[in-house]
Amino acid sequence: MSMKRIGAMVAVSVLGAVGIGMAGGTPAYAESAPSCSSTVQIGSTATLTVGGQTFASVKQFKGCGKNWGYVYVWASYRSSHQSWSDCAAVSVTNSSGTGRHDLEGVVCSSNKVETWSTGTNTLSSCTEGSGMYGDDPLGPIVGWVSTSVRC
Q1: Of all helices (H) and strands (E), which one includes residue 132?
Q2: Where does residue 117 rank: exposed (0-12), middle (13-18), buried (19+ CB within 10 A)?
């Protein structure tokens, strides 16, 4: 992952983003994280909207002693767009009191239905599952959403 992309993600996490919503109960059809067959969803499901269209569901899971971020790109978005880029991560609440979040386990992909972060050793921290959208894998993040905080 390029430093430009990581810098853009951190900037978005600090500044927030416009036009992104959260919703509960949206199905993402996740089975299990890579290399862990026993994950369970924790926290809410967030919905990432891009250009007025629902792009993806974002969730956080725990299992195998780790936390996992997850992005599921909706079929309606996939059928109306030829390409997209997304990232999944676990956002850890920074204990400094600044309101900052540190991204862990970031994994980005292009044109995939599901993206899982790597498993993070953050079960003892306050975390959120985070999902990001970009028009181009090397370009800036243009959409961002996180699930509810779980401590």
Answers
A1: strand 127-134
A2: buried
pLDDT digits (tens, 9 = 90+) for 36-84: 989 999 999 999 999 999 999 999 999 999 999 999 999 999 999 999 9
Q: Is the pTM of this model over 0.85?
A: no
Q: How far is the CA of 89 from the CAs of 6, 61, 66, 78, 79, in angstroms?
A: 11, 11, 12, 21, 25
Count the Cβ atoms, other than its own, within 10 Å of residue 46. Answer: 26
Contact 77, 84 (CB under 8 A): yes
Angle at 142 between CA 138 and CA 146, to 5 degrees: 110
CA–CA gap between residue 108 and residue 130 (Å, rounded): 12
Q: Which residue has the tokens 């936390």?
A: 67
Kindly tell me if the per-residue pLDDT of 24 is higher than 50. no
